[in-house]
Amino acid sequence: MKKLYVKTYGCQMNAYDSAKMADLLAPLGYAATDAPEGADMVILNTCHIRERAAEKVYSELGRLKKLKRGKSDMLVAVAGCVAQAEGEEIIARAPVVDMVVGPQSYHRLPEMIARAARAEGRSIETDFPALEKFDMLAAPRGSGVSAFLTVQEGCDKFCTFCVVPYTRGAEHSRPPQAILAEARQLVDKGAREIVLLGQNVNAYEGDGWGLAKLCEALARIDGLARIRYTTSHPRDMGDDLIAAHGDNPKLMPYLHLPVQSGSDSVLDAMNRQHRADDYRRLIDRIRAARPDIAMTSDFIVGFPGESDADFEATLKLVRDIGYASAFSFKYSKRPGTPASTLRKQIAEDVKTARLDALQKLLLAQQYAFDDSRIGKVMPVLFEKPARDAGQLMGRTPYLQPVHVVADTVLIGTVADVKIERRTANSLHGVLV
Ligand code: 5AD
Ligand code: SF4
């Protein structure tokens, strides 16, 4: 057996891709290991979304260089969005790297490994043969209780801050029958929850099916208890999908719908194609369909030209909506994106102050949301043993982690739990 170490950066789609790469290399005799020391092959599955994510890759490559001195036959691959964006530059800058493979071409890894074995030199695969990849990938070898499933990839929206349209390519959707087949395989391997992934997952459009119809068909799979999807764009939130939140009981009442900013002039400069009030009205409609739905979002502070008043508008929007949780980031200049050349870049200390203020508000909302569950009974899907002996970790419909004293036979089942208290990042409760 050869040892394969895959390190995943960034989003859930990268986690899905990493699992697919491991499945693909298993027939070649590679078994997963959890450290790079002694590995025969190391794959860094990288993220390019913000500056710091990309920098981490080069420092990891520095560490791998030392390891490779002691094990010269170790293969090093850079995969993911940094690979797609930087291609040749990685080869030039990091001699330790044997192969560079983009997110749409990793099904070619077996060929690339064969080329390396024949000492044919270092290889780069960064084409976009989009439709080919999924047909070439292996069936899942196993599954956790909660499984990711990519249904849509790429982005045609071109928000001015974002590298995704360049690294993941144009929007395209997998055919529904392929998705349903993969979902059934995952459920056979133990999945009880499926998280549908796409950069614009609610723009899903496969053989005339939208995401609502896909979720309806998925809900008919016996043994599948919960369906989630991420990440969505406000512009693609169609009436049928909103209605599905009221009609499809397996669709969880939790929606990640990034707004990025609460200021119309910033939204315009970001090319988001909606105003803050459009978003407010959309949330009203979603809440009318499913009153208990919990909302989450992504925010960027310090976008070029963002004034104090613009930032205040973001705080106002957050107060108006009320989020169960959210991610927030300082604007980070990305090479090749339109916003990176805007002149009115915001000073670092201003970005820091705004991020602190926003995160303080969002965290207070998160705690208030979590605290509002104390004393209530909620259905919890148990995923795995918790750190404390005798306890399991499960999740509520709102994705909150819950720790409960329970037998391991409950893993993979949904049971009612009375929530008793909250610690920083989790809830604690008892089986009822
Ligand atoms: N700077 C900061 N945050 C960014 N995001 C995307 N691009 C950038 C950038 N250049 C954030 C957005 C997006 C999330 C995945 O990452 O909020 O929704
Ligand atoms: Fe990036 Fe905007 Fe596309 Fe989301 S919708 S992936 S933020 S370009």
Tags for this model:
432 residues; alpha/beta; Rossmann fold; OB fold (Dihydrolipoamide Acetyltransferase, E2P); 19 strands; 36% helix; 22% strand; binds iron/sulfur cluster
Question: Would you write up a description of this structure?
Answer:
It is a single chain. The chain has 14 helices and 19 strands. The chain has helices at residues 12-25, 51-70, 80-86, 88-93, 109-117, 130-136, 164-167, 176-188, 211-219, 239-247, 264-269, 276-289, 308-321, 348-371; strands at 2-8, 30-32, 41-46, 75-79, 99-101, 123-125, 146-150, 152-153, 172-173, 193-197, 226-230, 254-256, 294-301, 325-330, 377-385, 391-395, 401-405, 414-422, 427-431. Helix 9 packs parallel to helix 10 (239-247) and helix 13 packs parallel to helix 14. The protein is globular, with a radius of gyration of 22 Å. The mean pLDDT is 95. Iron/sulfur cluster binds next to helix 7.
